[in-house]
Amino acid sequence: MLVDTHTHLDAEQFDEDREETIARAVEQGITRMINIGFNRETIPSTMELAERYDFIYAAVGWHPQDAVTMKEEDLDWIAELCRHEKVVAIGEIGLDYYWDTSPRDIQHAVFRKQIGLARELGMPIVIHNRDAHEDTVRILREEKAHEVGGVMHAFSGSWETAKLCLNMGFHLSFGGPITFKNAKQPKEVLRQTPLDRLLLETDAPYLTPHPYRGKRNESAYVRFVAEAAAELKGMDFHELAEITTHNSLERFGIR
What pLDDT does residue 202 have? Predict the structure, then answer.
């Protein structure tokens, strides 16, 4: 049993074989998947998947790359959707200084508003942080994100950054990069991450793990991430799968 805590099965890359892709994940023992709706286009398709499949859940939020497009009514929309029984988190939200498609001050404002909403509703948050470690941690601290906690998605920071996030009650989620030969930092951070704060993901169709790196990722491949994590932790695969599944269900309040 495994959980893919971050996937985008509604992406256009799956338009030709979405049902088959989901079936392959189930065959590989992926018992639950959390699909991420992050803008005006992907939130409805994420909700559609969550309503169609018992084992697919939804997180909804506004991605930092799209921050410049967010309106007040979008925040109200997210708040309304959070009442849905299949919505388990607000996300992915945060900062992205790599693509810089939205001005940073707007990214900050949209990030803060969504943390505030999460605190108001008592929902965990899923954090996107690309090349913005210092500001991400600072805003999480200033906005009292520790009151709800959540997940640092596709964690790529240092162990020092990781400790700051762990101290605020966040879980660290790892994906395909821990299977890459030269990815020293994420491997080292995973080794030091407490087992009760460890989550696994694919971020499909992106960040494909070895041995399929360079091809489209899919939720079934979280198994390769789990195998790599078990090896890095020096423990049995099935034990790690059981622990990370328990962490996922507990973090997102899934029965």
Answer: 98
Which among 117, 176, 178 has a CA at the least distance from the CA of 150?
A: 117
The 8 Å CB, 24+ separation contacts for 140-145 are 140/115, 140/165, 140/168, 140/170, 141/168, 142/112, 143/112, 143/115, 143/116, 143/119, 144/115, 144/119, 145/115, 145/118, 145/119, 145/170
- Report percent pLDDT > 90 for the chain: 99
CATH 1.10.3720.10 assigned to domain 2-251? The reply is: no
Torsion angles phi and psi, residue 170, rounded to 5: -85, 150
pLDDT at 255: 86
Please state, as a whole number, how many other Cβ atoms lie within 10 Å of the Cβ of residue 17: 13
φ and ψ of 93, to 5 deg? -125, 160
Could you report how far apart the first and last alpha carbons of the chain are, in Å? 14
174 with 200: CB under 8 angstroms?
yes
Q: What is the pLDDT of residues 95-106, one digit of tens each?
A: 999 998 999 999
163 to 22, 23, 135, 245: CA distances (angstroms): 34, 37, 15, 22
Predicted TM-score (pTM) of the model is 0.97
